[in-house]
Design a protein that fits this description.
This protein folds into 4 domains: 125 residues, Ubiquitin-like (UB roll) (Roll); 78 residues, Alpha-Beta Plaits, CATH 3.30.70; 61 residues, ADC-like domains (N-terminal domain of TfIIb, Single Sheet); 66 residues, no CATH class. It contains 9 helices and 16 strands. The strands form 6 sheets. It has a 5-stranded mixed sheet with strand order 2-1-5-3-4, with helices on one face. It has a 3-stranded antiparallel sheet with strand order 10-11-12. The chain is elongated.
Length: 345
């Protein structure tokens, strides 16, 4: 890919020519505050926090300014800092300030930006007025929507439209009354929301958070256990329990995105009702058995079937070789062509 050379804060930077100034800076370890930017989405430049000075140009947003050879960029000047600080103060002044109880505490982009630009508490006290208290939408079975913590960055709206193609949410009302909501300002559970959680994982603040949240002690890379797509996931593990799931950004199958089952459907793993041993019915009741005993029992039952009395449903989770053996067994041993595959159903 073609490269361009530019200077950011006195550092000579080499970047791909299709990058923006913000992307080039972040890739080279130069932090530029931002809230509405996300690498998975088209930049819109609405938060105005990523403004920079480019030699020979007026002040501009770096998230949607392409890099050019010879460009000289300054990201930290008194004028830039004043503009950023004012913008952040206007976001914080009516924002829910109970950060310790917020699930996004220490992972909140607004916290990071506020710490970077510096906030004067005395100025905030003068700006604060009566704060409106909007109802929290807890209707979705997997995550909550708290409009009191929303900063109207639009990342959730663009995620639902650009990545999922659902457009279940959008901006509603105007000015101080503006909120993000489903159609008719109703509940998420009554909308066309698919509960995939893609908006939740991209939300930079605590406006969209899972109903249950625990920090894992470590993560394990694996593959989703549901359909045959084979999406890459990371399981967050704490002790002997799975407490979180997030997509593998480097997996070519799903590029980090997940459906509702892949992201939230892991409670069965820790369920006390989950079977840990095979069961065989004796005297009308199921009792635990050894695996060898159970397999012999199944083999004996299969011997009673002939031809089209038998059918097999194969699995996309199996290897090609295992599926070949299954179809060979069905046709050669059981004597039937009644074989199907879960990916076709």
């Amino acid at each position: 890919m073609d490269k361009v050379t530019l200077i950011i804060d006195g550092q000579k930077i080499t970047a791909d020519k299709d990058m923006t100034v913000l992307e080039a800076a972040l890739e080279n370890g130069i932090y530029i505050p931002h809230l509405c930017y996300h690498p998975d989405l088209e930049p819109v430049g609405v938060c105005r926090l990523c403004i920079v000075e480019i030699e020979g140009r007026p002040m501009t947003t770096s998230c949607n300014t392409p890099v050019e050879t010879g460009m000289v960029v300054r990201t930290d000047t008194p004028e830039i800092n004043l503009i950023r600080r004012t913008a952040v103060e206007l976001l914080i002044v009516n924002h829910d300030g109970d950060c310790l109880q917020c699930p996004k505490n220490m992972e909140c982009e607004l916290q990071r930006v506020a710490n970077y630009v510096g906030i004067d508490e005395e100025r905030l006290r003068r700006l604060r007025r009566t704060t409106r208290k909007l109802p929290i939408d807890t209707s979705n079975p997997f995550f909550n929507h708290d409009p009191n913590k929303c900063i109207l960055c639009g990342i959730c709206v663009r995620t639902c439209e650009q990545i999922q193609g659902v457009s279940a949410i959008d901006f509603a009302f105007r000015g101080y009354s503006a909120v993000v909501s489903p159609f008719g300002n109703g509940a998420l559970a009554e909308s066309i929301c698919e509960s995939c959680g893609e908006c939740m994982v991209r939300c930079p603040v605590g406006a969209l958070t899972p109903k249950t949240s625990q920090q894992p002690s470590h993560e394990v890379k694996t593959v989703c256990t549901y359909c045959g797509c084979g999406c890459g996931i990371y399981l967050g593990v704490r002790g002997d329990r799975i407490v979180s799931v997030h997509g593998d950004d480097d997996c070519p199958i799903n590029s980090g995105t997940l459906c509702v089952k892949g992201r939230f459907g892991y409670d069965f793993i820790n369920s006390p009702e989950r079977l840990t041993a095979p069961l065989i019915k004796r005297n009308g009741k199921f009792v635990e058995a050894e695996w060898d005993e159970a397999l012999d029992f199944v083999a004996g039952k299969l011997a009673d079937y002939r031809g089209d009395q038998f059918a097999t449903i194969s699995s996309a989770k199996c290897t090609n070789e295992e599926n070949y053996v299954i179809q060979k067994f069905t046709r050669g041993v059981m004597g039937t062509n009644n074989i199907d595959h879960c990916a076709r159903l």
